[in-house]
Design goal:
This protein is mainly β. The protein has three helices and 26 strands. The protein binds calcium ion (2 copies). Residues 327-329, 345, 347-348, 350-351, 445 line the site of one calcium ion.
Length: 456
């Protein structure tokens, strides 16, 4: 049906100008399915007047992905002048299929595949070629159309293997990794529950060219490969917002990003899987990680919305902090027993400093059956980024049981967060921060506990 309508349009385009005209009013493209009434899960009442973008979205409810929207990387030998995947993994167009309303991107252990000889290969160890050490094929869809400013949303179940499952964009000067998930990492218990968003600098001549210049690391209360969840990312002219299941995890203003704001051009969208050699090294991978049938990154839909009339959004709003004096702007009040006050802060005048091994606990009243977000900015000043990594941990304990935690180790201010849901009989939790057992010099600021309002 879709192919037929495209053919009709192409064959009549010279004699029936209304064909291209009608389509260009909104999309320039033809697709049989146009879900006009959808709104972002983060805005179910559509207060932001979001408009579904047909040229950038796909419900994956037909027998194939929408070929007006996507290119299957490597199909017909065409990689659109981009890379062929992150070596040793390579995109194999045979690893894409649409079935029963879902897009499947399969990653396979495929030693018989005819891997490419050329680069660029994108791995940390540049001498690893495609198919070397770990002969893994993956898959990618690259968007055919570009956009600037809007909201991306994906409902997906990530691949349950040491491989990425990502939704991201690239354009001149910048890359926005809206969601980079890693399905399984036997050596890092946080990897498979991490919500990771980042910005990469591709500005020619920039001091940080090629580097990741901003990211968030949020620890979910579920494994990304266990079930379907809804990942949302707003790219506004003035801020970035990251959502899980409609709940706002992080909002970052353009002003606070300063020179790190690289999302300024028209971007193309990617959906793909890659070997992340910084998570699991290729020589640690084996056929057993992928099984006989391969592992699937499963996508129910990938949507892009824009605000009607290209309106701007409301910006980042302050959220209530349930931890008293969590910004340390009232001095050491409530924190006297462990830290000392320092003016080397993340925000405001003050932060808390740990000189030796220490632990702070605060018991906070909470509601039962409620989802919360705990976050902090931490600088681990004794880490040297070479051979000395000093860890600190932030976490939450409910009725004597640790619910979730996250680790800090960078020697510059770094914000991290986690989420947890209280049990039905819970009225209080204990939040903590500690540099035990290593006891390195730490600074802590913006220690925040707030409700995370997901969409039911
Ligand atoms: Ca679908
Ligand atoms: Ca402060």
């Amino acid at each position: 049906m879709k192919i037929l309508s495209v053919l009709l349009c192409l064959s009549t385009i010279f004699v029936m100008p209304s064909c291209s005209k009608a389509n260009s009013a909104n999309t320039n493209f033809v697709h049989t399915e146009v879900p006009v009434n959808l709104s972002p899960v983060s805005d179910p009442e559509n207060i932001g007047k979001w408009v579904y973008q047909n040229a950038l979205s796909d419900e994956f409810n037909e027998t194939d992905f929408n070929r007006n929207v996507w290119h299957n990387m490597g199909e017909g030998g065409d990689f659109k002048g981009q890379w062929k995947g992150r070596a040793p993994s390579q995109y194999n167009p045979a690893n894409i299929r649409v079935e029963n309303g879902y897009l499947y991107l399969t990653s396979r252990w495929e030693p018989d595949y005819d891997f490419a000889e050329d680069g660029p290969r994108g791995n940390a160890t540049s001498d690893i070629g495609y198919g070397d050490i770990a002969p893994v094929t993956t898959a990618a869809l690259l968007g055919k159309n570009t956009y600037k400013f809007g909201y991306m949303e994906m409902r997906a179940k990530k691949a349950d293997a040491p491989i990425s499952s990502s939704f991201w964009t690239t354009g001149p000067g910048g890359e926005t990794d809206a969601f980079e998930s890693f399905g399984k990492n036997p050596k890092n218990r946080w990897s498979e529950r991490r919500l990771h968003t980042s910005l990469h600098d591709w500005r020619k001549g920039s001091e940080t060219y090629g580097k990741r210049i901003w990211d968030i690391s949020h620890i979910l209360d579920f494994r990304v490969a266990d079930d379907f969840n809804i990942y949302g990312f707003e790219w506004d002219p003035n801020y970035l917002s990251i959502y899980i299941n409609g709940g706002l995890v992080k909002c970052m203003s353009r002003e606070d990003l300063g020179d790190r704001w690289v999302a300024t051009s028209q971007h193309k969208i990617w959906i793909d899987s890659e070997i992340f050699d910084w998570e699991v090294a290729p020589n640690e991978l084996s056929k057993a990680d992928f099984g006989d049938e391969g592992v699937d990154f499963i996508v129910d839909y990938a949507r892009v919305f824009k605000r009607e009339g290209d309106r701007f959004g409301p910006g980042c709003e302050a959220r209530e902090n349930l931890i008293p004096n969590g910004d340390f702007e009232s001095g050491v009040k409530g924190w006297e027993d462990q830290g000392v006050l320092t003016t080397e802060s993340f925000q405001g005048e003050n932060a808390l400093r740990f000189e030796g091994e220490a632990r702070i606990n605060r018991t906070i009243k909470v509601k039962p059956n409620t989802l919360y977000l705990l976050s902090a900015a931490v600088s681990s000043d004794d880490t040297n980024m070479k051979d000395k990594w000093m860890n600190a941990y932030m976490g939450v304990v409910e009725n004597g049981v640790k619910k979730n935690d996250v680790r800090f180790f960078f020697p510059t201010w770094k914000e991290k967060s986690l989420q947890f849901k209280t049990n039905s009989n819970t009225n209080a939790v204990t939040v903590y921060f500690t540099n035990s057992p290593q006891g390195g010099r730490m600074r802590l600021d913006n220690f925040v506990l707030t409700e995370l309002h997901v969409t039911p």
